[in-house]
């Protein structure tokens, strides 16, 4: 959804059921495995977060003991939490914990996505490349490089003319023009439709404002919204090779990496069936799955992908929405689908998981700066939790009461503003 697991907080978004999907869902799995988690507080210079209404659903009419804290005039607020990310579906640290207990990749997937069936996913995907912020697609020349006009005409080999770069860009007339650069850019051919570079299945090096990166498959220039979007068109299996090692450490237990390959393949197939845009199906960030192209590949994760080739989870014959997060903290949380259930997770708390439990400390002034409408903070009230796990589970909504007023914010907003690992948390307040 992003420790070695990038913040798997991915939350895509489509129909009402997918409102939790386009927000950051997984927190990436980037932390090295033995790294101790220190205070997880975002920089103080954050804009005030808007107050939001409590989400629909059952609300507590009374504040239970332990869910309301009085805040003295000068206070320190200690936030104790569990897990990293939204907690929907598979815990990536949990997958490794399960593998260390001898579970296979199928058993891991079946535990975290109960009620799904086994099926297949294959074909191609299209991915928007976010690093290419320019209004063109520029590549390095290489042997076998061709260009195609997607309005018809087939692929045409590019000449060996000493070009340092080739590009497809919008011309003044609005058409896409193929050009090459020697001492300057020189026009070569205009296209009738969108265009793409192809090199016979060999990686092509894309030149972006932030650097160069090779990609498998085809690099396409797509006219969208008055500009040009860079899109990578490639097989699903090739795409996964640029995803899995960025979502889970390739050096982890093979069963855990294979489980990640299955979840990532299924997730991509689901996204493909619910495309982000008319010009592409997936993005390359934590809002979908992080995709790093050919240079991100690792032999161990490639082996896991090959070992599970085509294997996916389905519901009613269609790909399941297999969200995953870095760490469940011991309880997964209910998501937008019936198979994204809230359940106790006995695998997440193995010794190598540094985010199974965590702690952050802020002073009351930090909260007052983030929500200035409250004035001097007097009280923190957790209004509603999801009811699953320690402390009553993840925080759905909380209220900050101050001398000038109060605000009610969602747990996700509170977590985001303070840079916390998850909404699975509680408080302790003391005087400074």
Short overview:
This protein is 16% helix and 32% strand. With 432 residues, the chain is of the alpha+beta class.
List keywords for this structure.
single chain; 432 residues; alpha+beta; 6-stranded antiparallel β-sheet; 8 helices; 16% helix; disordered N terminus
Layout of helices and strands, plus pairs?
Blueprint: E1 6-10, E2 24-28, E3 68-70, E4 75-82, E5 90-91, H1 92-100, H2 105-112, E6 117-120, E7 124-128, E8 136-139, E9 146-149, E10 155-157, E11 165-170, E12 176-181, E13 185-191, E14 195-198, E15 204-208, E16 211-215, E17 218-224, E18 227-235, H3 236-241, H4 244-247, H5 254-273, H6 299-307, E19 311-315, E20 318-319, E21 324-325, E22 357-363, H7 364-370, E23 377-385, E24 395-402, E25 406-410, H8 411-418, E26 425-431
Parallel strand pairs: 5-21
Antiparallel strand pairs: 1-2, 3-23, 4-22, 4-26, 6-19, 7-18, 8-11, 8-15, 9-10, 9-14, 11-12, 12-13, 14-17, 15-16, 17-18, 19-20, 23-24, 24-25
Helix pairs in contact: 1-5, 2-5, 5-6
């Amino acid at each position: 959804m992003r420790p070695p697991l990038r913040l798997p907080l991915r939350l895509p978004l489509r129909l009402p059921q997918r409102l939790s999907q386009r927000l950051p869902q997984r927190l990436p799995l980037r932390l090295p495995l033995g790294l101790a988690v220190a205070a997880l507080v975002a920089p103080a210079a954050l804009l005030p977060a808007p107050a939001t209404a409590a989400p629909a659903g059952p609300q507590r009419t009374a504040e239970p003991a332990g869910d309301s804290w009085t805040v003295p005039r000068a206070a320190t607020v200690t936030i104790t939490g569990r897990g990293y990310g939204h907690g929907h579906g598979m815990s990536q640290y949990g997958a490794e914990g399960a593998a260390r207990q001898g579970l296979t990749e199928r058993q891991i997937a079946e535990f975290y996505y109960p009620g799904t069936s086994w099926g297949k996913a294959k074909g191609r995907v299209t991915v928007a490349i976010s690093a290419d912020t320019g209004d063109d697609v520029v590549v390095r020349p290489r042997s076998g490089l061709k260009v195609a006009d997607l309005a018809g005409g087939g692929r045409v080999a590019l000449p060996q003319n000493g070009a340092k770069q080739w590009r497809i860009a919008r011309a003044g007339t609005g058409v896409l023009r193929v050009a090459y650069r020697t001492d300057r850019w020189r026009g070569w051919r205009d296209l009738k439709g969108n265009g793409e570079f192809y090199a016979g299945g060999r990686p092509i090096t894309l030149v972006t404002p932030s650097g160069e990166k090779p990609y498998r498959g085809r690099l396409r220039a797509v006219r969208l919204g008055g500009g040009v979007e860079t899109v990578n068109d490639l097989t699903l299996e090739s795409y996964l090779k640029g995803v899995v090692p960025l979502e889970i450490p390739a050096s982890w237990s093979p069963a855990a990496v294979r489980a990640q390959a299955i979840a990532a393949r299924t997730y991509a197939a689901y996204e493909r069936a619910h495309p982000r845009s008319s010009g592409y199906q997936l993005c390359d960030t934590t809002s979908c799955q992080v995709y790093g192209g050919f240079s991100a590949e690792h032999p161990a994760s490639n082996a896991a992908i090959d070992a599970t080739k085509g294997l996916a989870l389905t519901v009613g014959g269609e790909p399941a929405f297999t969200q995953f997060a870095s760490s469940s903290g011991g309880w997964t949380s209910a998501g937008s689908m019936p198979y994204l259930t809230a359940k106790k997770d006995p695998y997440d708390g193995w010794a190598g998981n540094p985010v199974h439990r965590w702690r952050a400390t802020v002073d009351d002034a930090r909260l007052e700066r983030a929500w200035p409408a409250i004035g001097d903070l007097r009280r923190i009230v957790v209004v509603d939790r999801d009811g699953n796990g320690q402390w009553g589970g993840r925080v759905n909504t909380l209220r900050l009461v101050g001398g000038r007023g109060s605000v009610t914010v969602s747990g996700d907003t509170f977590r985001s503003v303070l840079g916390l690992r998850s909404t699975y948390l509680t408080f302790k307040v003391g005087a400074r």
